[in-house]
Design goal:
The structure is a single chain. The chain is α/β, with parallel strands linked by helices and about 260 residues long. It is about 30% helix and about 30% strand. The chain is built from seven helices and 15 strands. Helix 1 crosses helix 5 and helix 2 packs parallel to helix 3. It is elongated, with a radius of gyration of 30 Å. The mean pLDDT is about 85. Keywords: DNA-binding, Phosphoprotein. It holds the Pfam family LytTR. This is Response regulator transcription factor.
Length: about 260
């Protein structure tokens, strides 16, 4: 019977050494035929040596472990080394792929080795997992890991509550042309109306989408897509003309970089 062979790919040499040492304890008969320091090397060695198992770090230069797995999974059983615990549990629930959390523990590796040995026996009996199933899992894992680490988009303020007499008016931020501080209040200007609210500009800056509202002056925030025109007056100041509003707003020197073309 031919010995079972494996490839280890990780861009960190200490991690490769640790995994090799752990494998020697957990599976003494397993032959490590090659080690790779990046995804490109992993694919080249995997295609050349055709190991039964490929242990792939997910984050590697050149090609990621997932990209390398797409090239190797039809000939090798894939085991990912990952730090993405919460995503791994979901992505590997079907069992066609396996994973190890870094740093690799002896107990978890023993479980993985037992699963691999069972799969190898299954493959020898001609009932291996369908390649398309593994391909689907790789696609799912890719999506999960691409989303990991992306900060959730903050729930930016979309409505302003303005007191109008004895009534409360809800004003959509899409209606607002600009905010301007006015002593104890902040003025809210739309095309057809003006309101006063008690929120400060600083509070609004923290709550509004920075891609939608820009501060052009210490006392003024404008909705960017409501700016109709930027021009300079006789004193060289940048002045904004807002859509549907007859007045002009001054851009302070500290914020003139926002309109560099002027």
């Amino acid at each position: 019977m031919n010995p079972v062979t494996a490839l280890i790919a990780d861009d960190e040499a200490p991690m490769r050494d640790l995994l090799r040492a752990r494998l020697e304890q957990a599976w003494p008969d397993l032959q490590i035929v090659a080690e790779a320091a990046n995804g490109v090397e992993a694919v080249e060695l995997g295609e050349k040596l055709r190991p039964d198992i490929a242990f792939l770090d997910i984050r590697m230069p050149g090609l990621s472990g997932i990209e390398a797995a797409r090239r190797l999974y039809e000939r090798s059983h894939i085991v990912f080394a990952t730090a993405y615990d919460q995503y791994a549990l979901d992505a590997f629930e079907q069992g066609a792929l396996d994973y190890l959390l870094k740093p690799v523990s002896a107990e978890r590796l023993a479980t993985t080795c037992a699963r691999l040995q069972a799969r190898l026996r299954t493959r020898a009996q001609g009932a291996a997992a369908a390649p398309q199933d593994i391909g689907q899992q790789l696609a799912k894992l890719t999506t999960l890991l691409e989303n990991r680490g992306k900060p959730e988009k903050p729930a930016y303020l979309r409505w302003i509550q303005a007191q109008v007499g004895a009534s409360l008016r809800m004003v959509s931020t899409r209606e607002i042309l600009f905010f301007q501080s006015d002593e104890k209040y902040t003025r809210v200007q739309t095309v057809g109306a003006e309101f006063l609210i008690r929120k400060t500009l600083k509070e609004l800056l923290d709550e509004l989408d920075p891609d939608e509202f820009w501060r052009i002056h210490r006392s003024t925030l404008v909705r960017v897509d409501a700016v109709a025109e930027v021009k300079r007056d006789l004193r060289g100041r940048q002045m904004l003309k807002m859509r549907g509003w007859p007045g002009e707003l001054e851009v302070s020197r500290n914020h003139s970089y926002l309109f560099q073309q002027m």
